[in-house]
Specification:
The complex is a heterotrimer of chains A (241), B (292) and C (337).
Chain A: E1 2-13, E2 16-27, E3 31-35, H1 42-50, E4 57-62, E5 65-66, H2 72-78, E6 80-83, H3 95-100, H4 113-119, H5 136-148, E7 154-158, H6 166-179, E8 185-189, H7 193-199, E9 202-207, E10 210-216, H8 222-230
Parallel strand pairs in A: 3-8, 3-9, 6-7, 7-8
Antiparallel strand pairs in A: 1-2, 1-4, 4-5, 9-10
Chain B: H1 3-31, H2 38-56, H3 60-88, H4 93-113, E1 118-119, H5 126-129, E2 131-133, E3 139-141, H6 142-164, H7 166-176, H8 178-183, H9 188-213, E4 215-216, H10 221-235, H11 240-260, H12 265-281
Chain C: E1 2-4, H1 8-25, H2 27-30, H3 33-59, H4 67-82, H5 87-109, H6 114-133, E2 144-145, H7 154-181, H8 183-193, H9 195-200, H10 205-231, E3 233-234, H11 236-239, H12 243-255, H13 262-276, H14 281-298, H15 302-311, E4 320-326, E5 329-335
Helix pairs in contact in C: 3-7, 3-8, 3-10, 3-12, 3-13, 4-5, 4-6, 4-10, 5-10, 7-8, 7-10, 12-13, 12-14, 12-15
The chains are: A alpha/beta (241), B mainly alpha (292), C mainly alpha (337).
Chain lengths: 241, 292, 337
């Protein structure tokens, strides 16, 4: 069953077009990785799905309903949660407060303050600390936990590895694996190709705002992926772009 | 007046300024808007209470209670017509739009109420004049004590609101990162409207105190705005308790200045304000960076 | 493809402006002293609007306290005249003092952020007002007259004042005009459009802003000088009043913030309103305030911005235009200034 459908999405910043005519679908229970170089439009696309960016044209359908005009805070109530690029925790609020402030959606489910803290045990001791005092990895854990507090049916993750040491990223992805239960629907943006291909079931590659490659993560030829990522013409296909 | 008396009066005066400044501080803290019509909103509150007193003979407190809902409604209208729009426009727009609004409020009040000075003192009964004589030279006015108590309660309540309630956390979150707040389900529009409502309500309270402790007329607004802003700056912009302390510091500066020469009162406050700005933001080598 | 500064219209208009200025010089010879006095007021408004626009429109500095310099100009004149200096020389001196004082004030004021700058300047004006009130030699709270002007015949005095006003107006408009056309001007417009981007390109934002601030100090000081020369009596309550800022904000917002011609249009408009509603009073002030607020929120480019946009009109060549030759027609894409 299709949970998310993006149709001909066109997103701009003033005159700059960041997302050009992007269309794809995400079925319930899928884990899709959005890959692409910096500036390819991945963050903008995620933000448009989450409602933080008004598209210039195109449609976003979630759970059968057109949500293109629905503001971000209402999409949370409907079940879309975005873990933004750069964590974006509220610095002076404690870990607890960062989590508690995110229940406004009012959705019921597996996740509440207690279960979130249980899933990220390293946060237990830091509950009462202001978010600004945490390390990068801890902040990322809080950011993910905060998104989970609304019990989303679609979880969007934007570059959770950004600015973190590889060891820390490993730990984050390990927690993610525990957290993403069977049947959870996830779209994640990841610059690290290897990790993306390992975690996801399907891969969509963006280049300069357009979808240039889409396919099953296991069966895609790695060279093809790399070529699409960098916009290189494939030698074998002789000039295909 | 002895020094001790001047200090006591300074603290009482400062508490009044703190109440005036509270709303300004909230609006700035949450929305980064300085409402140049803030003083006029306070004066408007005083006039509304005055109207109730004139027509019903009620006490000042009851009149305030009646005026408050009207003020909150006006605050909501202010939010959706002027402030929300200003937020989306440039940095200059809120200052310019609220300045224009200030002129409008003053002159509408002039048209409706004439330039005569008014007072809510008569409607406040014993509160206006009662005082305790602690020593032969030192006395505490009942009004001063009440204003100080109310100031502490108001600031305390706001602090509790911000640190213990869902709506309070939402407000702090929106103040720090409105975009991220939206992404976790917080309706920033509602948060802003709530902040404006609180600001207008407390401003009206300031207007009530203004009317009881002295007189007011349609153009009293700008003076109150300047005092409120000075209190906010002296105490540190963005800090709620800072605004209370800033108000008290301003009050003390004025009463102690008056000790030197009665005409120096307001000037002493201005000098303190400018001195704080110079020290905080420097002129040349004297820059002291203030941690945010 | 060429980059041009002058269009036919702007050549016509600039030439026309010079003619207009010369024509205006003959006003005192044609009209009664009352009319001349009124037109002097118009010139005062033009200067104030231009200066406030220089600050806010080109420097991004919203000041609600320029009346400080108006007051320095006015009271400076009275002060120097009181020392025995010939009145019109006293006026020039007072203007220079106002400009000079803006330098040390700028060292402190320009470090302040938006609201603090706006209200900080206002407080400075209030401080000056209080200091004047405490000084009996300057008339304290009741005010003081520029009695030294009595040595002149009223008709001549009005004429001299008008010519001085015209001279100042031409001076400051020309100064701003050349400023905007110079490389300095390009950086000023960059600051106006995006301060951080300009700074990252190496534009020395601080010194540019200081230049505008000092220019405005001279300009508002000149306006203050003209106020006392025109009305002969000043008091702190009116000359240091925040009402002046209200006028400046209205003129520039309605005329067109950040455009060269806009403030002049705004000044003419305010002058027309003031002359029509001579009863003045609260009603027209409500209109001014509401007008300023509405324009700030809804029409940020002001009336001139709208005219410019609709007609593609640029009367004075302060911007650049890209002109490309395509087949036989010229497509002109105007780069906004």
């Amino acid at each position: 069953m299709t949970l998310l459908k993006v149709d001909g999405l066109d997103c701009r910043y003033g005159l700059l077009q960041a997302v050009r005519g992007v269309s794809f679908e995400v079925a319930q229970g899928e884990i899709v990785a959005l890959i692409g170089a910096n500036g390819a439009g991945k963050t903008t696309l995620l933000r448009a799905i989450a409602g933080a960016h008004r598209p210039h044209a195109g449609k976003v359908t979630f759970d059968g309903e057109d949500v293109t005009r629905v503001p971000a805070h209402q999409r949370v109530a409907r079940g879309i949660a975005l873990v933004p690029e750069g964590r974006r925790l509220f610095p002076s609020l404690t870990v607890e407060e960062n989590l508690r402030v995110a229940v406004a959606g009012g959705r019921r489910g597996r996740w509440n303050e207690q279960t979130v803290l249980e899933s990220f045990p390293l946060l237990q001791a830091r509950r009462k600390l202001p978010a600004a005092n945490l390390s990068g990895g801890e902040q990322q854990a809080v950011a993910i936990g905060r998104a989970l507090m609304s019990n989303p049916s679609l979880l969007l993750l934007d570059e959770v590895s950004l600015g973190l040491a590889p060891v820390v990223v490993d730990a984050v992805y390990e927690s993610l694996a525990n957290v993403i239960t069977e049947g959870a629907t996830v779209v994640l943006v990841e610059q690290d190709l290897t990790r993306a291909l390992r975690v996801a079931g399907r891969v969509i590659c963006l280049l300069e705002g357009r979808v240039v490659l889409e396919g099953d993560a296991r069966s895609l030829d790695r060279e093809r992926v790399v070529n699409a990522y960098f916009g290189l013409r494939s030698r074998a296909a002789g000039g295909e772009r | 007046m002895t020094l001790a008396n001047a200090i006591v009066q300074g603290i009482f005066l400062g508490a009044f300024y703190a109440v005036l400044a509270c709303g300004l501080s909230i609006m700035f803290g949450v929305m980064r808007i300085i409402n140049l019509a803030h003083g006029d909103v306070a004066v408007l509150g005083a006039y509304l209470a005055f109207v109730v007193v004139e027509h019903t003979g009620a006490s000042a407190l009851v009149a305030f209670a009646a005026a408050l809902p009207v003020m909150l409604a006006l605050g909501y209208i202010l939010q959706i017509t002027v402030l929300e729009r200003s937020l989306k426009a440039g940095l200059l727009t809120p200052l310019l739009a609220t300045f224009g609004l200030s002129i409008v409020i003053q002159n509408v009040l002039l048209i409706v109420f004439s330039p005569d000075v008014r007072s809510l003192g008569p409607a406040a009964g014993a509160l206006t004049s009662a005082s305790w004589h602690v020593t032969s030279e030192l006395s505490f006015s009942a009004l001063g004590v009440v204003v100080l108590a109310v100031a502490i309660v108001v600031f305390g309540a706001l602090q509790l609101f911000l640190s213990r309630t869902q709506a309070g956390w939402a407000m702090r979150a929106t103040a720090e990162d409105a975009d991220a707040a939206e992404l976790v389900g917080i309706n920033s529009r509602s948060v802003y409207a709530r902040a404006t409502a609180i600001a207008v309500g407390v401003a009206a309270l300031g207007g009530l105190f203004l009317g009881i402790r002295s007189v007011f007329d349609p153009i009293s607004g700008p003076t109150q705005l300047i005092f409120a802003f000075e209190a906010v700056v002296i105490g540190g912009m963005g800090s709620l308790w800072g605004t209370l302390l800033g108000g008290i510091a301003l009050g003390l500066a004025q009463t102690l200045g008056a000790e030197i020469q009665p005409q120096f009162a307001v000037l002493a406050g201005h000098v303190l304000f400018l001195a704080v700005l110079i020290v905080r933001f420097g002129g040349g080598r004297l820059t002291l960076r203030v941690a945010r | 493809m060429k980059v041009e500064r002058w269009t036919r219209t702007s050549k016509l208009f600039t030439g026309g402006s010079a003619v207009v200025a010369l024509a205006l010089a003959s006003v005192p010879l044609i009209f009664d002293p009352d009319v001349v006095q009124k037109l002097t007021n118009l010139l005062i408004l033009v200067i104030l609007a231009t200066m406030w626009n220089a600050l806010a429109g080109y420097g991004g500095l919203v000041s609600v306290g320029q009346q400080a310099f108006i007051g320095i100009g006015a009271y400076g004149t009275v002060f120097f005249a009181g020392l025995g200096v010939s009145p019109y020389v006293a006026m020039l001196l007072a203007m220079v003092v106002a400009g000079a004082l803006s330098v040390p004030i700028s060292l402190f004021a320009l470090r302040l952020r938006a609201a603090q700058f706006a209200i900080g300047m206002w407080v400075i004006a209030e401080v000056m007002s209080i200091l004047v009130r405490l000084d009996k030699n300057l008339g304290a709270g009741t005010g003081i007259s520029l009695i030294q002007m009595n040595q002149y015949d009223p008709n001549y005095r009005q004429a001299y004042t008008f010519w001085m006003a015209l001279g100042f107006a031409v001076l400051f408009l020309t100064a701003l005009f050349f400023l905007l056309r110079s490389p300095l001007g390009a950086s000023l417009q960059a600051i106006r459009d995006d301060e951080d981007a300009a700074r990252s390109l190496g534009v020395r934002v601080a010194s540019r802003k200081r230049l505008l601030f000092v220019l405005a100090g001279f300009g508002c000081g000149a306006a203050g000088v003209l106020v006392v020369a025109n009305t002969l009596f000043i008091e702190p309550g009116s000359v240091f009043s925040v009402q002046w800022s209200a006028y400046m904000i209205f003129m520039v917002l309605v005329g067109g913030l950040g455009t060269f011609e806009g403030p002049i249009l705004g000044a003419i408009l305010l002058f027309a309103i003031q002359t029509t509603f001579t009863q003045g009073g609260p009603w027209y002030l409500v209109g001014l305030g509401a007008g300023a607020a509405v324009f700030a929120l809804v029409l940020p480019r002001g009336l001139w911005g709208v005219i410019e946009g609709r007609l593609g009109l640029r009367l004075l060549p302060v911007g650049y235009r890209v002109v490309s030759q395509e087949t036989k027609t010229e497509k002109k894409a105007q780069v906004s200034a």
